[in-house]
Design brief:
Blueprint lengths: L1 H53 L5 E2 L7 E9 L5 E8 L12 E9 L3 E5 L3 E4 L9 E10 L10 E12 L3 E11 L4 E6 L6 E8 L5 E7 L4 E3 L4 H4 L4 E7 L2 E11 L3 E9 L8 E2 L8 E4 L1
Parallel strand pairs: 2-9
Antiparallel strand pairs: 1-3, 3-7, 4-6, 4-8, 5-7, 8-9, 10-11, 10-17, 11-16, 12-15, 12-18, 13-16, 14-15
């Protein structure tokens, strides 16, 4: 009898220890599961992206990504008028890696309670090289203060955007636009990364008037994309300089509409360099802006 009692106590103790161990393992799983699934999702996204790249399928954006990019808009929106931001879409990794097929895609969005927002289009097509396209497209996000009440200085507003390709393959990229109310002004930023053959300069005009903006640069370092709307605007003027008997534009002036963002592409003579810059940052930008 005594041995049986000891066996029962031993079994109870083991059961209790097993229960404690299960609880500990459960707590560890609860803590680690979100990280595990986030990592698993990241691995899946990367694997799928490599699969699509093998099919010469590229679906990218300057403000959206597989990792849900957070994109901060310079704090020069007055918080009272309509404000526009252009989201550029692309179907190429660089000038040598492009998608031949047209990519159709749809866009959805949500915005914070202190603003209302609209898109100029919810579906579109990036025309590929197979149809003589340039592998680029864009849509515009328009934001307004909610209920006609101006936002306070320093107040933030958010727009979450998701773009999903529907043909020839499915892929989803997304991002969050973060707006902070500040003083109405004109500012700019240069978006770039090492290895990219080009950079994008975004000009943000948060004033209520159209303004002529001048860009100056060294054509031995960067070259203007002469298919851009900034260059093709009939009111555009420019100056040139001679290099090896050829004329190259080195300054260009063009109007930027009120309460809007204009994107201008420049090709880099050395793709290894990174010319990223935010107005007001330290250092000298590869392109200067005056107005």
């Amino acid at each position: 009898m005594k041995n049986k009692k000891i066996d029962r106590k031993t079994r109870r103790k083991k059961a209790k220890n097993n229960l404690i161990l299960c609880i500990i393992l459960l707590l560890i799983l609860v803590f680690l599961a979100p990280r595990f699934f986030s990592f698993a999702r990241y691995v899946y996204n990367m694997s799928y992206e490599h699969y699509l790249a093998a099919k010469d399928f590229y679906f990218t954006s300057d403000k959206l990504s597989l990792e849900h990019t957070e994109y901060e808009v310079t704090n020069n929106w007055s918080g009272a008028e309509t404000y526009q931001v252009i989201v550029n879409m692309s179907s190429k990794r660089n000038d040598l890696a492009t998608t031949e097929a047209d990519i159709t895609y749809s866009v959805t969005y949500t915005c914070s309670d202190n603003i209302t927002c609209t898109l100029d289009k919810s579906t579109s097509t990036i025309v590929g090289t197979g149809n003589n396209g340039v592998n680029e497209d864009a849509f515009t996000v328009n934001i307004n203060p909610a209920n006609g009440t101006a936002l306070s200085d320093g107040e933030r507003a958010l727009v979450d955007i998701t773009a999903t390709s529907t043909s020839p393959y499915t892929q989803t990229i997304s991002g969050k636009l973060v707006f902070e109310v500040g003083t109405a002004d004109i500012s700019y930023e240069i978006i770039d990364e090492p290895g990219s053959p080009y950079l994008t300069l975004n000009i943000i005009n948060s004033t209520s008037t159209s303004t002529n903006v001048t860009l100056a640069y060294n054509p031995q370092v960067v070259l203007l994309d002469m298919t851009s709307r900034f260059y093709l605007n009939p009111q555009t003027t420019y100056t040139t300089q001679t290099l090896d008997t050829f004329l190259y534009i080195n300054t260009i002036t063009s109007p930027v509409a009120a309460l809007s963002t204009t994107s201008v592409k420049f090709f880099k003579t050395n793709s290894a360099n990174n010319y990223s810059y935010l107005a007001g940052s330290q250092g000298t930008p590869v392109i200067t802006l005056t107005y």
